[in-house]
UniProtKB/TrEMBL annotation:
Residue ranges occupied by any Alpha/beta hydrolase fold-3 domain in the UniProt entry: 161-233
Signal peptide span: 1-21
GO molecular function annotation: hydrolase activity
Originating species: Sphingomonas tagetis
Keywords recorded for this protein, A-Z: Hydrolase, Signal
A Pfam family matched in the record: Abhydrolase_3
Protein's name in the database: Alpha/beta hydrolase
InterPro entries documented for this protein: AB_hydrolase_3, AB_hydrolase_fold, GDXG_lipolytic_enzyme
SUPFAM superfamilies: alpha/beta-Hydrolases
Keyword Metal-binding: no
């Protein structure tokens, strides 16, 4: 049963889009790569890969989706200086580590944050390889997710890519190194991630802590419809905002052990469990309370003090 559920949800996870009640997620149609004039190579002249490897598509004829990213980049989306708070967020889209829902969970999220005075930076991180043909890639991703399931009746598919964690740390380092240029406070740079992007944000924080350099990790985490399994939470873990829908077809809530682990470690955590929303609701699925996600996240950042300069608190 778990394998069947994973196969049914695989396309939803890969596309980073909510499933329709009967028809499932919309198809991906091959598209020309969009112009990304503000995208910055993540490692400067040492950035690996080649943009020519990328396969771009459009979901439902609108939202961009990209696969086979080998050259990671960071795209700034900055607020009007008159309303800038000095806070910054690295935005990590999802897509099963084999694609990025870069419009739905990247550019749109970044613009919404900038509209609220928060500098945002879309991370196009390195991905696991998939076939070039869209239809073949869809079958490959579904099969890979089902195989990664491992027969675990309760846990998420076991899949990931360690390069995404490296890219997460590099993105945070770039924002902090150029903080003065971009008008941000290096101590108020966090991450928000969706699905695989949520795992990337979490893994980035845990990797920084494991190396004894937790200050190199995110100052806070937006963990949006990521797996709810409990990690080992260090005592200096960043504050966590955890949001997921009860009807998520891929990641069962299971009593929210990730939030419980944060509380057990004595670290700040807020949980939002939506009645409906499926997986991949992004900035919100029409007709559900998930549409309040970003306002709730921003209110939480305000409560934590991240939208106020240190000298003003």
């Amino acid at each position: 049963m778990r394998i069947a559920r994973t196969m049914a949800a695989a396309a939803v996870l890969a596309l980073g889009m909510p499933a329709a009640a009967q028809d499932g997620p919309p198809p991906v149609v091959a598209a020309e790569a969009p112009t990304e004039p503000k995208a910055i190579p993540l490692y400067g002249d040492a950035t690996p890969g080649n943009a020519a490897t990328e396969n771009w598509g459009r979901i439902g004829g609108a939202s961009y989706f990209v696969r086979n990213v080998t050259r990671p980049t960071l795209t700034p989306v900055l607020p009007d200086p008159a309303k800038a708070t000095g806070a910054a967020v690295v935005v990590a889209p999802g897509g099963a580590f084999m694609g990025l829902a870069i419009s739905h969970e990247g550019w749109r999220v970044a613009q919404a944050l900038a509209d609220r005075g928060i500098a945002a930076f879309v991370l196009k991180y390195r991905l696991l390889p998939t076939p070039g043909d869209e239809a073949e890639a869809g079958r490959f991703i579904a099969q890979r997710l089902a195989a990664a399931d491992g027969g675990n009746a309760d846990g998420p598919p076991r899949i990931g890519n360690p390069q995404t964690t490296q890219d997460g740390l590099a993105a945070l380092a770039m924002v902090r190194a150029r903080a003065a240029e971009w008008g941000v406070d290096p101590k108020r740079v966090g991450m928000i991630g969706f699905s695989a992007g949520a795992m990337t944000a979490l893994n980035t924080a845990l990797a920084a802590g494991a190396d004894g350099n937790s200050s190199e990790g995110p100052a806070f985490i937006g963990y949006i419809y990521g797996p709810q399994d409990a990690p080992a939470v260090p005592t200096d873990a960043p504050p966590l905002f955890d949001a997921i829908a009860f009807d998520d077809p891929l990641f069962p809530t299971k009593g929210f052990p990730v939030a419980a682990a944060w509380r057990k470690a004595g670290r700040p955590v807020e949980l939002h469990a939506y009645q409906r929303g499926s997986h991949g609701f992004g900035l919100g699925l029409s007709g559900t309370t998930t549409t309040g996600l970003l306002d709730q996240f921003t209110a939480w950042l305000t409560m934590q003090g991240f939208l106020t300069p240190a000298g003003s608190r």
